Amino acid sequence: MGIRSHKSHRGKGRNGILWRLLSGLGTALGILWALPLTLFGILMALPILLWRGRMRMVRTPTPALLVSGPVADYMLEHHPFGSMCAMAIGHVVIEERNGLTLRILTHELAHVRQAAQWGIFFPFVYIAASGWARMHGQDAYWHNIFEVAARKAEKHN
Ligand SMILES: [Zn+2]
Fold first, then answer.
1. Predicted local confidence at residue 6, as pLDDT
2. Confidence of residue 78 (pLDDT cuts 50, 70, 90)
3. By C-alpha distance, which of 107, 126, 106, 100 is closest to 115?
4. 72 close to 97: Cβ distance less than 8 angstroms
């Protein structure tokens, strides 16, 4: 009995390592897949960082680079969907200078994961989802399925 339970414990441990490897691989593939978006995000982050900007890194649950500064505030205030607290572009999150609440960070990290899933197609499917909402007489932002999913993620935090 003692040996058996020991064995099953070891098996579990190995599964744990395998799972960690697979999820690490998934994260790496997601980063690669979202890379064109992230590069665009970095391009947007450059003027922010050059003018009294700051950056910080979030590792879990989703790796992301957060940038803020006066230029970020300006960009967020002039967002086409109206004033925003934050905006995710690939693995880059542009955030308000005051920082983000855990809830908003969770929301933005959900968008980072969406970008990792959809890769280069994400901006197109996002816009299509806004068009779909508008076609059905709904709000292009609020009823966008990606926004609905990100709001759902907020509540699970
Ligand atoms: Zn959102």
1. 47
2. very high
3. 126
4. yes
The phi, psi pair for 54, rounded to 5°, reads -135, 155
- Does residue 3 register a pLDDT over 70? no
In sequence order, the β-bridge partners of residue 93 are 66, 88
**Tokens, residue 85:** 């607290």
User: Residues 65-74: pLDDT tens digits?
Assistant: 999 999 999 9
Q: Starting at the edge strand that comes first in sequence, how are the strands of the sheet with 64-68 ordered?
A: 54-58, 64-68, 92-95, 86-89
CB atoms within 10 A of CB 26: 11
Task: Output the CA 104–ligand 1 centroid distance in Å.
Answer: 9
Q: How far is the CA of 1 from the centre of ligand 1 (A)?
A: 52
Q: Distances from the Cα of 67 to the Cαs of 44, 102, 154, in angstroms?
A: 10, 16, 21
CA of 49 to the centre of ligand 1 (A): 23
Q: Is the peptide bond before 61 cis (omega within 30 degrees of 0)?
A: yes
Contacts of 83 (CB under 8 A, 6+ apart): 76, 77
| Of the listed ranges 10-14, 47-51, 69-73, 102-106, the one predicted with least confidence | 10-14
